Amino acid sequence: MARDYYEILEVSRSASAEEIKKAYRKVAMKHHPDRNQGDKEAEERFKEATEAYEVLGDLEKRKIYDRFGLEGLKSSGYSGPGNANDIFSNFGDIFGDLFGMGGGRKTTNGPIPGSDLRYDLTITFMEAVHGADKEIEITRPDTCWTCEGTGARPGHPTKTCNQCNGRGQILRSQGFFSVSTTCPVCRGQGTVISDPCQDCDGRGLVNKTKKVSLKIPAGVDNGARMRLSGEGEGGRRNGKAGDLYVFLDVEPHEFFQREGTTIYLQLPLSITQASLGYKLKVPTIHGEKSLKIPAGTQTGAHFALKHEGVKDLRSGARGDMVVVIEVRIPESLSKRQKELLEEFAELEKEGGEYHHESLFQKIFRKTA
Known about the structure:
With 368 residues, this protein is α+β, with helices and mostly antiparallel strands. The protein has three domains: 1-101, Helix Hairpins (Orthogonal Bundle); 106-158 and 193-252, Sandwich (HSP40/DNAj peptide-binding domain); 256-367, Sandwich (HSP40/DNAj peptide-binding domain). Helices cover 30% and strands 26% of the residues. It has ten helices and 15 strands. The chain has helices spanning 5-9, 17-31, 40-56, 59-75, 84-90, 92-98, 125-130, 271-276, 335-351, 356-367; strands at residues 117-123, 132-143, 159-160, 169-174, 177-182, 191-192, 205-216, 225-228, 244-250, 256-259, 262-269, 278-284, 287-293, 302-305, 321-327. Helix 2 (17-31) packs antiparallel against helix 3. The chain is elongated. The relative contact order is 0.10.
C-alpha cells in the first residue's frame, strides 16, 4: 500500500491504542461490505483500514512501522491481513463490538496450530558483538501426550456440536448485517468433549519446561529478534507447534559505545600528553592496539582504528573503532606544578600565542 497507515485511519502518529481502535471502528462501519454491497471502492477502503489497524493496533508491528516503514514490516515477515475471511477471523472482537454482538475467532474442527511465543533474553555487550552459545529454559503449553491434543479422554471421541452443527460459528443477522459469531457451546471448536482428558482437563495442552539451545551470531544489536521454529506453543489435533521468538536486550558497556558496526571509545588524556604527543595501548573489542597521539591534540579529536569494530551480520565485514579524545584539566595542583604552569603562562604572554587582550578588544568593539 502506498498510503500512510495513520492517514488511512485519520489519526496522528502519537495516537493512543484506544484512539486508533475508535478510528478503525468508525472507518470500518462506514465502508463495511454489508453496508455497501457491490461497491468495490468501499470494499477496498475497508480492507485498507483493516490492514492499517492490524499494524497500528499491534504494539510490536507499530514500532517496526514507525521506524522502518512498510518495507521493514515485510522484512519482519508481515504479509498483510489476507482475504475477507481472514479479516473477519482476525478482528472478530472488533466487528462484534461494531454491530452490538459478541465477537469471536473463527475456528474449525481440523488441526489447530500452536501460537507463537516470545522470550526476552538479556545478553552482555561482548556477547552481542562476538556471538555466544546460550541455553534458555522455557515453560510453554505443549501438546498433551495422553490425548495427543484432542482434549478428550483416550477411547472417548469428541462429538459434533449440536448448536452450530460442527461449524464453530453461528450466523446472526441484525438489519442488513450478517455476522458470524463464535458458538457459545463449543467455543468455536465445532465439537464438544463429553469425557475430557484427565491430564490436560480437556485443553489438549499441558505446561512443560524444557531447555532450548540458542546460537547468537556475532554482530547482533539491541532489539534483534531470533526465530526458533517449532519451539512455541504445541499444536492440537495434529496441528504443528508454533515458533519461539527470542528478543535480545543488550546491556550497555562501561567504556564502549556502539552505533551500527562502529565502536566509540572516549579516551582521557592529560594536558602534557595532548600537548607533547603520546603513544599508548588502547583497548578494543578485539584486544589491545597501539595508538599514536600527535602533539597538539585537542579535545574532540577523532582517531580511527580500521576494522576494529563490529562484524556486519550480512557482509561479515568489520566496522571501525573511533577513539574520541578528551583532554582532562587537573582539579588540584601541587606547589611545583602550579609554579611550572605560571612560568609557562608567562612564556605564553611573551610569545603572544593567544593575544587574549586584543581578542577581548575585538569582541567588545563588535558588541558595543
